## 1
Amino acid sequence: MSESAAARGPVIILVEPQLGENIGMAARAMANFGLAEMRIVNPRDGWPNEKAEAASAGALHVLSAARVFGSVEEAIADLNVVFATTARERGQQKRVFGADGAMAETVAHAAAGAGVGVLFGRERTGLDNDAVALADAIITFPVNPAHASLNLAQAVLLVGYEWFKASGGSLPFSVGERPVPATREAVLSFFDYLEGELDAAGFFMPPEKRSIMVRNLRNIFHRLTMTDQDVRTLRGAVVALVQGRRGGRNLPRKGRAGEEEK
């Protein structure tokens, strides 16, 4: 396996998959996380498979490049490091990794030019012990032990996700630059106005609790880390409520049927 191939991530090796749909969904999961090389060992329904193409959601480049092998030994012959996925302890005294730890090791191996592969077993029974014996280490997943079996494509997706993170993948977008908080002057002016109107409405009852209630109210707004726009919006909302209560001109006019006119 070439260094350029290793840089694309681990080879995904499906051992005797039974359903074309699962192969297609596995290809889709690979494409989601930048994995390019699929190898298939003795697919039950032959290859190529129209159902795999239909289920791939456009990951045809993965399927078109997929290679078919007659045995696991042939499929891993050119690889340097092989992981086997399994939900059961096999008593083979191999190192056991979660997908995150295995993919962290894969990044290091790939950087050194080594070819890494991950074996995935049949949908119903997983890998047999002989296939697991060919691997250097085991990948397993923290799942509910009462329902530990994963769909083939789900298992591929979990490995691909951890590979993408370990190799430097990042979120496609973020909130962006944090806005500048409002000045203390703007915040305190808002507090003064709000507390004055709440006094007029009789909110601070009983009077001896006013100072505690004011502190609690101010801390609610402080936790929001308000911007100047936030302060203006909140102040405008309170003004509208006060004017509405006092019969101000900003009230919506009523139509003949009692509906608000726009």
Note: The chain has a mean pLDDT of 89.
## 2
Amino acid sequence: MTIFRGDLAHCPTLGRLDILSDYCLGVNSEGFITHLAAASSSELLASSPPHKITSIPAGSFLLPNFCDLHLHAPQFLYQGTGLDLPLMEWLDKYAYRAEERIDADRALARRVYTALAARLIEHGTGCVLLFGTIKPETNLLLAEVMQEAGIRAFVGKLSMDKSTREAYREPGTSASLEAARTFIHDCRALTSRLPPHRRLVEPVLTPRFVPTSSDEQLRGLGEIAQEDPSLRIQSHLAEAQDQVNWVRSERGREDIDVFDQAKLLTNRTVQAHCTFLTDPCLDRLHERGTAVAHCPLSNMYFSAEKAFPLREALDAGVKVGLGTDIAGGYSVDIMNSMRHAVSVSRIRQGIYHEADTGTSTSRRAIDWKEALYLGTRGGAVALGLENAGRFAVGCSFDAQQIKLIDPGSRQGVGSLDFFDIADTVTLTAEIVEKWWCIGDAQNRVQVWVQGQKIG
């Protein structure tokens, strides 16, 4: 057993921050937490023979890893560029071409995916839901890279039997469905020889969005999902006005209805964005158990007419986590997603307050603690990972060590400055908030997934 002793912090429920000061946390050989107690009452410290203790020094703390619910792995190729067009034009000019290039060049794909894995670890993301490309072999490579890096990754081979870029689509509906089945089988085979707790990569059924899927294809994917109750599903839903209008013109329906009729709105589904959903649609997501990947940064570029109704979704009981949406969002750091989520929600609060001439009591903003929940435990719940995103006996030890103060110099680390440091550093909500607002990768010392140190 590995024993950690020090301060822990997590958000087990929305809006609640628990600081566990001077705790002992025990992790077994399979990477699960088997002991959690205050050091003053922990029998592990008095055991014979004594356990080896890994101390988390004062001024540092353990936090659950971040979970990124929406990231396009091949688009990491052009991260931070090409954000000048509306969504549908942007896809043609940038996204499809980059994905096609990745599919055509295995060496390039490995370089991009290896760099992406390193950046995820650097920024404390130990769990990620990934969109890939249409070629099965390239997505298997993506799965291999994530497994080798030790990241808990859910990999989606794109299903696209339609496309505005004719060179980048699958040859037909039957071929697309067969490719999806093959990828699911082959992805699982990658880790089949490993013990269950070391199988970090899983396949995800991934119709890109309604404009790139025929009704026949979506129905076929729905049948695959019904046949396999462990299979997760992901797509994009009601992201941008031009996309919503496209679906209405082409299908004569809302895209939520298209997904629902294909039986693709399930309690294993994560839908990205959802900015243009009405309250009744949010209620439908809750009824179906479908989760939302909220991507506030990319929404600023592609959903500028409307922000995602985050507070309304949470109040409706919808499962929500955060996504970076690389490369529609330019930052791979979930901390930026958390901060943007709060900023956008506060703007919404001000807009509604002004519209109600100062009389509104409706709350639409979220605070930093709620955002921290969304970036950790909320993402895990959205993925059906009940034993992740928090510190509790039986949960996976997926954690990051955050260093706030250097014990030698007694100075803040990175961009953090402290002016009233006592002889004994006590972790408080105020200190965690300071890190949440202005901390960065310099504060991240170590990262573990399933008990294994990966960074």
Note: The first helix runs from residue 87 to 104.
## 3
Amino acid sequence: MEREIAPRMRITMPGAALLAAALAGLAFCMAGIWQLEGARAGVTITQLETGTTPLTVYRRDGAGPSPVVVIAHGFAGSRQLMEAYALTLAHAGYLVVSFDFEGHGRNPTPMSGDVTRIDGTTRKLMAEIGRVTDTALALPGADGRVALLGHSMASDIIVRQAMVDPRIAATVAISMFSEAATASTPRNLLIITGAWETSLRRDALRNLRLADPAAAEGDTVGDPAGSGGRRAVVAPGVEHVSVLYSSTALREARDWLDQVFSRSSSGPVAATGGAIVLLLAGVVVLAWPLANLLPKGDGPPAPIPLRALAIATLVPALVTPVVLRLVETRFLPVLVADYLAVHLFVYGVLSLALLRLQGVRFGRLAWFATLALAAYGIFGLGGALDRYVASFMPIAARVPIIAAIAVGAVPCMLADSIANQGGRAALWRTLWIRTAFLASLGGAVALDFKRLFFLLIIIPVIVLFFIVFGLIGGCVGRRTGSPTATGVGLGLILAWSLGVSFPMFLPG
């Protein structure tokens, strides 16, 4: 009897685990979508344009004339990233208009000017907010009053714009860094900072104390309903990105605007961060049972000897930033993406060459698995990101950028996948491989900080890519036994992710 049961268990247990993963993944996805779509219930969402700037208008069904709130995203962001604030304020009865800055999201006009000068790029982005404000105030249902809300890069833009545009009654600056504010301007300034944003918290307190040297975090200085006020608050347990989904931050923004406009709002706070995590987790979990529908490949490739792994990772990590310090890499109309494309290419080719010289076999390329992985990452997970998190579907102007980055991203991720055996390597090996690559980017920034500063902002995107898309790629690699399929597929996804994230930019 025991001899009969054991083989049967070996056959059925994997199937049961796959079924459980499929059901769990579907449940996570459905629960996340249900919550995210529920947050939109009762709000009419309309897509418009002013010039080349794409707008999204949020208005509660049945709302009467109300103040307008113009919402601006941060560097490398888009309208979708600010939707929790847009929905919270729309449910509170405000007419909300969010938009994609020049060079970001689906805005086809590149950023321009000198990013290091106030009278350069900053002035151009201020002018864009002015045009959006004009359009927003002309919408049906706008009562003539307007406020600005912005995150990170946009915090400086909206502070400066509010100081020169007398129509702006209130400013909500999230993760603010700006040296423009004075003791009395901009009028009715609320500064929201995440508890883990240590330096920005200090700067927020400094700006608060311009109005009252004795003020502390959480204090309100002045009278926002009267002559004008200022407040600095901290959202607990969040950092630079998760502050966009903090219920505390969302509630503070709504309550501040209510005080300024003498309103008493009701409605839900759209803290959608948990639902987004649930949806993305569901898409990742589903990757395992779906990968098992692919043709099963050969057994796992042999582990790479430690000496070979060390040479293939450490040498490119040291050599690439040093060599590229001497190379002109400005050839794409995007900020530092051209450098990153070349860095990926040199790093990847060096690593592949060193692996091959040490006798590591690359194996066959399973084209169907490659295309399946790329399609699932770009259109499956990417589709969810585009609707609920940030712009992921490119406009036509970004397609050549994605193609150029792919020339570097594919060999780099191919080397990564071969080194970690298509997702079968021990965790410490995978961490070693990817830490070496990130260290090479850090070294590049250290060698040319002024030129490559914006790479520091993109590094968290790459870390997130390794975590989320790396898990999906590992499922495909373990099923097919083809590190090359995983590497090429992940390279295409990485090129797409970077190509839609980097701001388009033309100097002058």
Note: Residues 302-506 form one domain.
## 4
Amino acid sequence: MTRPIEAIVVGASAGAVQALSRLLPNLPATYPLPILVVVHVPPERSELATLFGAKCRLRVKDAEDKESIRPGYVYFAPSDYHLLVEDQRTLALSVDEPVLYSRPSVDILFESAADAFGDAVAGIILTGANEDGAAGLAAIANAGGRAIVQQPHEAFASAMPLAALARCPQAEPLTLDAIARQIEAWAS
């Protein structure tokens, strides 16, 4: 039997705001799991935490270096920083080189979350126009975690979901509505 999910990591790029707007605002303020999100954004300051903070009942913030991961929070990777999960279940920010032209990188978040949480992490790849996240989702699946991909035909940009399914064939392709139901189910 697999352990209950203790954290959810999400990666998205082109079309991310619309996809996340169908997943995050419906979660109740009492939702018990942390959700860590990487969205490919330009290096200038991102307003994603502000935008979703106004829409969501959960607490939403930009991740801070060495911050403890707390339940019921949505953490966004700040623009131009990689977001990592450390073994002590704290967050780390890095300015290491971009991965697949992206900083923040979905792969870096997902691979570090797989190392920190093992089979108690769920990874979700949403819409996007490159291959970032495919290797990270495979790392989560290989650690025994749950791997979910937005149905490519439903995605605004299908390259990221298609790459993730090719690299991680055991991932489950789901519609956004089904992903929303799954996120809610992990809380129980």
Note: The first helix runs from residue 16 to 23.
